[in-house]
Design brief:
The structure holds 2 protein chains of 2 kinds. Chain A has 12 helices and 8 strands. Chain A is α+β, with helices and mostly antiparallel strands. In chain A, the strands form 2 sheets. Chain A has a 4-stranded mixed sheet. In chain A, strands 2-3-7-6 form a 4-stranded antiparallel sheet, with no helix packed on it. Chain B is α+β, with helices and mostly antiparallel strands. The chains are: A alpha+beta, B alpha+beta. At the A-B interface, helix 10, helix 11 and helix 12 of A face strand 6, helix 7, helix 8 and helix 9 of B.
Chain lengths: ~375, ~270
């Protein structure tokens, strides 16, 4: 199979198509007043963007055509993100469904799961959350203690998840649970949980930014049918690795490139007449461009079959630290017009090196699996 | 001025720290009763800026909202009355076309930056609570307001730089404790080299921040630069503290934002003042 690469005629035709569409589609409020919008206003625009993407045929670009996608490759998907960055487009609200749940269900789910779950992810009608971390299982994800015990036709799930992004808005949850006392990594099972049922209590957690984007989720005998188990019982760790590969992969990095580009634009506007800060903002523009090339390179490597962890962990460290440096410069430059915006972004950005696997865990992965350093 | 602090600074810092720790948000009355709020105005106490920095650092460590810092500085600069000191003194500083009164309380006496009573002329005071520990009273003004003298501005920078270091102290203390309590992979996270290095780096950054604060007191001509550097180093140290705490550190409940927001507010105020 020939892999599409950047600069191919097909890729460039798509670039021109998406550029033209984005020019007309990005809401003016987002393009010109983003830094003045409150978190609920941002969410409203993001939710509408999900619907618009679907109606215009741009949701699930890299998903196979039989599952409602466009059947394109990772390269076209990244072109979409590049052009989104250029057009200052929003990121959709159903990100966990599109980036994590959908690709995992396509890769490892059953035909029934694909038919049931993929369409509402694409049209933005069902929001997903990711039930992985627990109070005792953060970096040590394999220590999850939330237990699923056998019941008639499925499982009853009891325990507590935490730092669950979008849980208060979610209809569905990707969930890693313990199903046996077997050996570590072989005692876990992967379930698709309906959040709309008794026995689930979602309590939003206030973050240091003051926002409440993630929650604690308490589960008391919540039911999951057998047909909503992904892969075999005891194979949950392998499925979770598929999710993490997507979470740290080029698609996620592409969405972050959009975010960082917009941050650097705002920084340059803040620092236009302030030499020292302007210089630092321009250096960040250079690093944003380097990130873009790094994502392009990783995308082509991934399309030609390279191991995900070779690029995933490196990418995650690069984008998360760059995002934090942008926000840090924003608060240091302290322009009066954007003061509130940058304070929020600065505090919010502190999570970037913690979620999706802390940057210490990413560096361990690079040391262990890429450099193969003996312990 | 000196690098080492004399006894009065150490004693004052220790006592103020004890009061802040023991009485929390209700500490202002105890600080007044003990005579600590009047130290800046007491010529016999002999407190120089370095000594006030020691006290300021302790206030950052507890990050409680009291008017102690502006009251100490006002005592030093403007010779206020005992009654004014008892109420706590706010100093109105020009900032982005408004006046900002740091460590604002509803009952404080407010002076302008030249030490005269502040005339509000019916202007409303809006409370900016971005930092719980260092709320601002924001006042819109139409005519230009007096600014601090260069000498006083340099002292303000030096004292607030020390408060920022105190904030870094607090985050480091909490991070060290957390690293012993939190277990992952079957052991306390402080056993992992990555975490130990982060804590060591926090210490190194905090130490440099304190050096910058001391330099700030000793080089008034470069106070703005030293203060900016102290705040930047304190922020970097606190950022690592959030990382050490992992997902919990990113939540409001653990409370690290209290210290980080305090430093951000100082950084923003001193940037504007300079």
């Amino acid at each position: 199979m020939r892999v599409t690469t950047f600069g191919d005629e097909r890729a460039e035709t798509f670039r021109s198509e998406i550029r033209s569409w984005l020019n007309g589609a990005v809401p003016d409020r987002w393009r010109h007043e983003r830094e003045q919008l409150s978190p609920p206003q941002v969410r409203e625009i993001q939710q509408h963007w999900d619907v618009l993407l679907h109606e215009s045929g741009y949701a699930g670009l890299a998903w196979p055509i039989e599952y409602g996608g466009r059947g394109m490759g990772a390269v076209e998907e990244l072109i979409y993100y590049e052009e989104s960055a250029r057009a200052n487009a929003p990121e959709g609200f159903g990100r966990i469904g599109r980036v994590l749940a959908g690709p995992t269900i396509i890769a490892r789910g059953t035909a029934g799961q694909r038919a049931k779950y993929l369409p509402p992810i694409l049209d933005g009608s069902e929001i997903w959350c990711q039930g992985f971390s627990e109070p005792g299982a953060g970096s040590d994800l394999a220590a999850v203690a939330t237990a699923a015990r056998r019941a008639d036709g499925g499982y009853l799930v009891t325990g507590q998840k935490v730092w669950t992004s979008f849980a208060q808005y979610a209809k569905r949850c990707l969930m890693l649970v313990r199903t046996s006392d077997g050996p570590r990594h072989h005692n876990l099972t992967f379930l698709l949980l309906d959040m709309d049922q008794p026995g689930i209590d979602v309590r939003p957690i206030r973050q240091i930014s003051g926002d409440e984007e993630f929650s604690e989720v308490f589960l008391d005998s919540a039911f999951v049918a057998d047909e909503d188990r992904v892969d075999a019982e005891g194979e949950g760790w392998a499925v979770a690795m598929t999710v993490l590969a997507n979470e740290r992969g080029t698609t996620e990095a592409g969405t972050r490139l959009v975010e960082i580009t917009s941050e650097v634009d705002t920084l340059l506007a803040c620092c236009a007449r302030r030499g020292r800060y302007r210089e630092q903002a321009e250096r960040l523009r250079g690093r944003q461009d380097l990130l873009r090339w790094h994502v392009l390179r990783s995308t082509e490597e991934k399309a030609s079959g390279a191991d995900w962890f070779r690029s995933g962990s490196t990418l995650k460290v690069i984008w998360s630290e760059l995002l934090q440096q942008c926000a840090r410069l924003g608060v240091e430059a302290d322009c009066a017009r954007h003061r509130g915006y940058w304070r929020y972004r600065y505090l919010d950005s502190r999570g970037a090196s913690i979620y999706s696997g802390t940057n210490e865990i990413q560096r361990n992965i690079i040391a262990d699996r890429v450099l193969r350093l003996p312990r | 001025m000196s690098i080492l602090v004399d006894e009065i600074g150490s004693v004052a810092a220790e006592n103020v720290g004890t009061i802040l720790r023991d009485t929390g948000t209700g500490s202002w009355g105890r600080l007044v009763e003990g005579g600590w709020a009047a130290l800046g105005a007491d010529p016999d106490a002999g407190m120089d800026v370095r000594a006030i920095q020691e006290v300021a650092r302790v206030t950052g460590r507890y990050s409680l909202s009291t008017p102690l810092i502006p009251t100490l500085l006002a005592g030093r600069w403007f010779q206020p009355s005992a009654d004014q000191i008892k109420l706590g003194i706010g100093i109105a500083l020009p900032r982005d076309g408004q006046l900002a009164v740091p460590y604002f309380t509803g009952s404080m006496v407010m002076l302008d930056a030249s030490g005269d009573p502040l005339s509000l002329d019916g202007h409303e005071i809006i409370r900016d609570s971005f930092s719980e520990a260092m709320p601002f009273g924001m006042i819109s003004v139409t005519e230009s307001a007096p600014a601090l003298s260069a000498e006083n501005e340099a002292e303000l920078h030096a004292v607030l730089a020390a408060v920022a270091v105190g904030c870094a102290d607090a985050v480091l203390d909490r991070s060290v404790r957390w690293s012993g309590d939190r277990t992952q992979f079957g052991q306390a996270i402080r056993a992992f080299q990555a975490v130990r290095h982060m804590l060591a780096n926090m210490h190194i950054l905090r130490e440099q921040a304190w050096t910058a604060a001391i330099a700030c007191a000793n080089e008034p001509g470069h106070a703005a630069r030293w203060c900016r550097q102290a705040c930047a180093l304190a922020m970097s140290s606190a950022e690592l503290g959030i990382q050490v705490h992992g997902g919990a550190g990113f939540t409001w409940e653990v409370g690290l934002q209290r210290f980080l927001c305090h430093v951000l507010q100082i950084q923003s105020l001193t940037g504007a003042v300079s």
